[in-house]
Amino acid sequence: MSDIPDRGHKPPVGFIRREASVNGVRTVFYIGGRGPALLFWHGAGTFHGIDFAREWTRHYSVILPFHPGFGETADDPGFDTIGSYLAHYEGFLEMLGERRVHLGGISMGGWMAAEFALRRPEMVDRLVLAAPAGIADPAVPVPDLNAIPPDELLSHLAHDPSVFEPYLPKNEAETREFDALLAGEGQTLARLLPNGPFREGLAADVGRITAPTLLLWGRQDRILPVALAETWQRALPDAQVKLFDNAGHTLLDESAEARQAVVEFLG
Asked: What's phi and psi for 130, nearest 5 deg?
C-alpha cells in the first residue's frame, strides 16, 4: 500500500519549516519528530514534496533540507560540483550542532549521501541509498532525461503517476509557480551535472564506505533501471539490498514497504 493520507499539505503534516543562513546561503529545511537525527536528501526535483518521510517522524528527528538552487533554498552560482554541496552540508550540520547522523538520499541525493559518507565517515552512523545516481554501467543504458517528452516525465518517474496528483498545479497561478520551480531546478542541474548524473571512479571509491548501508530500488524504475542495483551491490558487497514491486524511481512516494524498510534498517 502506497497511500499517504493528506498528501500535499504545506507545511507537510508533522513538520515545521525553518530557515537559516549557511555560509551565506539562505537555506530552507523541514524538521519533524523526535529521536536520533535522520538527515535525508532529495533528488533532482522537489515538486512532489517530502510527505514520504512523515511516518519516519515517529522514530527519528527527521531533517529534510532543500539543496541550494532547489525548492525554497536560494541559488548560488558557485555551487557547480557535488563537492560544493557536500561542503554546504558540513556547514549545515555544524549549524544544527549535529556531529553524527543517520544519512539518506534518493537519486542525486543518494549519490551525494554516498560521497558524504566517503568524505566524512565519522559523521555518518547508518546510510540509506534509494535508487542512487552516481555509478554508470555500460551494460545498463539509462534514458536521456532531456529527450523525455514533458507529458511522459511523470510516468518515467513513478510506476503509478497518480501518486503525484496532490502536488500538481490546480490553477493558473499555481501553474506559473510550478513551471518556475521546474525551470529553476533545471538550470541548477545543467550547471551541476553537465556530463550527466554519474562520476567516473565512484564504483571503486564506494568500497571504502564504512557505515552500514541499505540500498533500495523500485523494480519498475525507468530513470535508473533496477539492474543498477546489482552494479551498486558489486561495489558495496556488504550492503543490504531490497527491491520493491510496483514502484518506480520515486519508490519512497509509492511504496510503504520501502519506507518501512528504512525504519527497520535504522532500528
From this structure: -105, 115
Which grid cell sits at 72?
525554497
Dig out the grid coordinates for 64 from the structure. 529534510
Residue-wise pLDDT tens digits, 143-190:
988 888 989 999 999 999 999 999 999 999 999 999 999 999 999 999
- Name every residue whose Cβ is closer than 8 Å to that of residue 39 and which is 6 or more positions away in sequence: 63, 65, 89, 93, 98, 101, 102, 103, 104
For the domain spanning 16-266, the CATH number is 3.40.50.1820
Assign residue 75 a region (left: φ > 0; alpha: ψ between -120 and 50; beta: otherwise): beta
Question: Do 101 and 125 meet the contact criterion of CB atoms below 8 Å apart?
Answer: yes
Which cell goes with 78? Answer: 558557485
Residues composing the chain: 267
pTM assigned to the model? 0.97
Take residue 25 and report the three cell numbers written for it.
Answer: 546561503
- The cell 509509492 sits on which residue? 254
In Å, how far are 38, 87, 89, 211, 237 from 125, measured between CA atoms? Answer: 10, 19, 16, 6, 18
